[in-house]
Amino acid sequence: MAVETAVPSASPGEVSDRRLNVTIVALGVGAIASILDSTIVNVGVDRLSGVFHTSLTDTQWVITGFLLAMTAIVPLSGWLLDRLGGRATWMTALTVFLVASVLCGLAWNLPALIGFRVLQGLGAGLIIPALMTLLTQAAGQRRLMTAMGSFSLLVQIGPVFGPVAGGLLLQAASWRWLFLVNVPFCVAGLILARIVLPPKSASATRRSLDAVGLILLAPALTLVIYALSNVSGDHGLRSTGVWLPMAGGLGLLLGFIGWSVRDGAKALIDVRLFTDRGFAVTSGLSILSGFTMFGAMLLLPLYLQQVRGASIVETGLFLVPQGIGAAALIIGGKSLLRRVSARARIGWGFLLMALGTVPFALPSARTMTWLLIAALFVRGMGAGAANSAINASAVAGLPKAEIARGTTAFNIVQRIGSPFGTTVVAVLLARAVAGAARTSEGVVHAFGTTFWWTLGFTVFPILLASLLPASKQAGSPAGGVSAPRA
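The structure assignment produced for this chain is given below.
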């Protein structure tokens, strides 16, 4: 594998190593609420259905409305980052998320809660693009991989501790705390942002809003995500609720691509960004990770509950080794990871995730608790290696002026890739269950078949990672500065 022997010299906007570590903490504290929020609320949908005396289908809009709003606002994030600056956009996003969280906690009926969740989604949709832009500018290319690795520890918190936190809150407190728990994180994040993050540069570019692009792209993404959410629900693949919004969304998306090619750098998102090989490959990896990484994250809790009979809290605790595995690799393996290329990290990361999935595909392993725990630890190591490398490689080769729109485009790809992958995996599981014997053994074999599918999907990101440019290397650790390239 390629080994990095030198790194680029510092670029304008980079901060000292100590300041970078403080920036990562400040951004992490602010982002943790939105990272935890989705999994915490997901475990509370059934309780909310009982509280408001509504059907599960209606209550599901608490999640769907949030997801659609989060998707719709992402195309605007690049323009906001250019117009307002990273710190102002970040603080605006946290403020909207904070106010919406309080309103959700005070909701008096289901329509009010859904409306406030839409507002919360608008704030959440700006958080990750702003975070990636601020982190990229502070770290620079030479330390970006390590900075993303440190932040990816927080990304593991959501799927690991979210179900535990949600289950404990529902057992010990009112459902309102599913949302009010976000308040202290948002307040702390706003205070730290004001102290730590740099204000907008006076020389920053202020480009006009591409209104036509926004009108085309925002509804396009919303319709595609809505169609995918219907596939994962009670609707079939041929349902009008699936193919009609999907067709409309794809039509608008094609219209936006044509408009962007014509408008070039003035477009809301310049599709020419995808001509950068590193950006294009990592965008493809982000979509494929929906099958391997996020698809398995859907399967694992269901497997633990339906095959092993675990409760919500027990399921969350069982998944903790996955987060520990990611932390162990990122913290303990810094010196190793800094010496290997991004494509090596991604390839080995997906291979470790595949190895950690094998026991779940074997019916005989369902009673071997120690083996499943070890497998989850290995999966976590793989996710820790691959996640940060994918995020860092996406924008590492882009000019500084394109970072904001680059992170926006990459987040759009992620918004589509994750639900697309999980939807396909959910459909495969539903078909496997429908074709299996209606016994406990039949359910076990249905899950095994679906896990084998996710293992098969792992081959594609490993092959695609090999296409990353050799220059997309792992950066030096935040704890030390490497010598400039001669």
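Interim note for the steering committee: The chain has a mean pLDDT of 80. Residues 18 and 479 are 8 Å apart (CA to CA).
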